[in-house]
């Protein structure tokens, strides 16, 4: 009885399997490295042959090695346009405030200076008036003018002007100050005349030139 053998199905060739390219041997028994024009020593493994014969171009493509160290600092963002505008406005307001304060201080100092000058003038005028009053006290009071027939009016006017010689400014002024100083030296009858003179002048000043 004969056994019948079953025919073996052919195995599919794997697409990942391909024949290994055997290196070509030249006359010196050196094998050429695949993909290059270099030759490796006999007996070297194909991987070793490929690694030992890497071209400089392949090494250059790997790129430079980064040195070890801390990472570079992250750049800080600058101010935005709105922030820059706000800062400029704040500086302008500060400058304006300082200017206004300086102006106020200057005005206050000028007012103080004017006040001190006014006080000095007032004190000088008071001193001059006091000095004239002291000189006036040293003189004898002029006689009163009663308006009698034997009274000399021109002589009495001369005595009045001599007695108040320190008041030449008031004597020549366009007001009633000097006449008011002379009125107390008038008699009763002359005072009646002066009352009518005062009513006739009304609001106008009673100057010394009109009184004489």
Model description:
Among the domains are: 54 residues; 59 residues, no CATH class. The chain is 52% helix and 2% strand. The protein is built from eight helices and two strands. The chain has a two-stranded antiparallel sheet with strand order 1-2. The N and C termini lie far apart (191 Å). About 3% of the residues have low confidence.
Task: Please write out the topology.
Layout: E1 31-32, E2 39-40, H1 46-52, H2 56-61, H3 81-138, H4 153-163, H5 168-171, H6 177-182, H7 188-201, H8 208-211
Antiparallel strand pairs: 1-2
Share in helix: 40-55%
**CA radius of gyration:** 65 Å
Rounded to the nearest angstrom, the distance between the terminal CA atoms is 191 Å
Secondary-structure element order, N to C:
EEHHHHHHHH
Largest sheet: 2 strands, antiparallel
Mean pLDDT: 75
As a percent range, the share of strand residues is under 5%
Unreliable runs, pLDDT <50, ≥5 residues? 46-52
Overall spatial form: rod-shaped
User: What spatial order of strands do you see in the largest sheet?
Assistant: 1-2
Number of helices: 8
Helix-strand category? mainly alpha
Briefly, what is this?
By secondary structure, the protein is mostly helical.
């Amino acid at each position: 009885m004969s056994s019948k053998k079953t025919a073996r199905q052919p195995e599919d060739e794997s697409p990942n399997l391909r024949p290994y390219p055997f290196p070509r041997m030249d006359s010196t028994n050196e094998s050429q490295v695949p993909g290059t024009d270099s030759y490796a020593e006999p007996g070297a493994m194909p991987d070793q042959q490929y690694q030992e014969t890497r071209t400089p171009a392949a090494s250059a493509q790997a790129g430079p090695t980064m040195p070890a160290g801390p990472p570079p600092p992250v750049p800080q963002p600058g101010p935005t346009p709105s922030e820059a505008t706000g800062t400029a406005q704040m500086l302008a307001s500060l400058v304006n405030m300082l200017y206004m304060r300086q102006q106020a201080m200057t005005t206050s100092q000028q007012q103080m200076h004017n006040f001190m000058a006014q006080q000095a003038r007032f004190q000088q005028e008071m001193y001059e008036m006091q000095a004239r009053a002291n000189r006036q006290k040293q003189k004898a009071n002029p006689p009163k003018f009663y308006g009698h027939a034997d009274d000399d009016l021109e002589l009495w006017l001369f005595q009045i002007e001599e007695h108040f010689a320190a008041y030449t400014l008031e004597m020549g002024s366009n007001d009633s100050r000097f006449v008011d100083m002379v009125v107390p030296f008038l008699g009763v009858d002359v005072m009646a005349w002066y009352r009518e003179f005062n009513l006739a002048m009304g609001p106008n000043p009673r100057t010394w030139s009109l009184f004489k």
